[in-house]
Write a structure and sequence with these properties.
The chain contains 2 helices and 10 strands, in the order E-E-E-E-E-E-E-E-E-E-H-H. By secondary structure, the protein is mainly beta. It has one domain: Jelly Rolls (Sandwich), CATH 2.60.120. A 6-stranded antiparallel sheet has the order 1-2-3-10-5-8, with no helix packed on it. It has a 4-stranded antiparallel sheet with strand order 4-9-6-7, with no helix packed on it.
């Protein structure tokens, strides 16, 4: 068992417009995502299935060949290895859950995001 307090999980400032707090178990990564208006998450894909929940703000996704606007109270599932990208249309905060874990986040090799 692990017990976490959100305010004790460090905020990682990935870029000027993107920050996150995350923790990883054996098979899943749980993340709080913060994006300022205009932030772009470039096209990428990963082995992890992803669930993204919008707490506040608006996020525009392109997932495969479909576009989606994610608003507060809405959730989207992105299947494993499906290319996707996102643009924050407003300041955004949300929760992302990944399974299996995001090893590239843990080891800092998520270069697509750090550009």
């Amino acid at each position: 068992m692990n017990h976490y307090k959100l305010n004790e999980i460090p905020v990682e400032q990935v870029t000027d417009l993107f920050s996150r707090r995350f923790f990883t178990g054996e098979q899943a990564t749980f993340a709080f995502i913060y994006m300022k208006k205009g932030c772009v998450v470039p096209l990428h894909h990963h082995d992890s299935e992803q669930f993204s929940y919008c707490m506040s703000g608006v996020l525009q996704f392109r997932i495969g060949d479909k576009e989606l606007i994610l608003r507060p109270g809405e959730l989207v599932r992105i299947p494993s290895n499906v290319p996707h990208e996102a643009v924050s249309l407003e300041d955004f905060s949300g929760i992302d859950i990944f399974s299996p874990i995001r090893k590239d986040w843990v080891d800092g090799s998520d270069d697509y995001l750090r550009k």
